[in-house]
Amino acid sequence: MWGGIIVTIAALGGFAPGAAGPVPAPVFAFAAFLALLFGGWFLLPRFRSALLSVPLPALIGLNTARLGGVFFLILAADGRLSAPFAPIAGAGDMIVAALAIPLAVMAAGGADEHPAWLGIWNGLGALDLIVAVSLGLLSAPGTPFRVFTAGPGTVAMTAVPWIMVPALLVPLYLLIHLTIAAKLRSLQRTPQAVALAG
C-alpha cells in the first residue's frame, strides 16, 4: 500500500524539486515510513516478535539485493545523478551486498561463532544508508542547503522507479539492520546467561 501511495504522489509530481518548499519532498516520505516501521518495532510487540522470528541468515541475505547500487553508477555515467552521492551510495551498497553473501553462509553455520564480524558488517550497512541519505539531501536541487551543486544532483531520485529507494527501500533496510542488531545482542546474552546459571 505504501508503495502505491509513493508511486501515485510521484506520478502527480509531488516529489519534484520545490514541490514541498525548501525541504526535498522525498525526505517527508522517508521520515514518515521510517517512523511507521520503527514505531511498529517499539510499540507493537507482535510486530517486533514477527521480525525477530526471521532467521538471521535470511535477514543478512536480504542485503544482497543492494547489489542494485550499480544502478546509481549507471545513472551517474548517464549524467542523471551527481557525485559524491552516486558513487558513494552505489559503491557502499555494492560492498555491503557482496559481504552479505559469505556472511549469510557464515551465519547459517552458527552466528554465535562470529558475532563480531556480523556486528561490524551490520553497522557498516546501516552507516552506508545514513551517509547515502545525508549526501542525497545535500545534493537535492531546489533547496537552500544544497552543498554539492555540480550537475543534476539527485533529481532522478524524485521520479519512478528511483523514488522507491529513499521512500521505501532505505527505511526497510534500516529496520532490517535494527532487527539483525537485536538478534546479535540476544546471541551475546545467551552465553552469559548460561555462564551465570552454571
Could you walk me through the main structural features you see in this protein, from its secondary elements to its overall organization?
Residues 192-198 have low confidence and may be disordered. Helix 5 (70-77) packs antiparallel against helix 6 (85-108), helix 6 (85-108) runs antiparallel to helix 7 (115-138) and helix 7 packs antiparallel against helix 8. The relative contact order is 0.17. By secondary structure, the protein is an all-alpha fold. The chain has helices spanning 2-11, 25-43, 45-52, 56-61, 70-77, 85-108, 115-138, 164-197. It has a domain at 56-156 and 168-189.
Short synopsis of the structure:
This protein has 198 residues and is mainly alpha-helical. It contains 8 helices and no strands. The protein has a domain at 56-156 and 168-189.
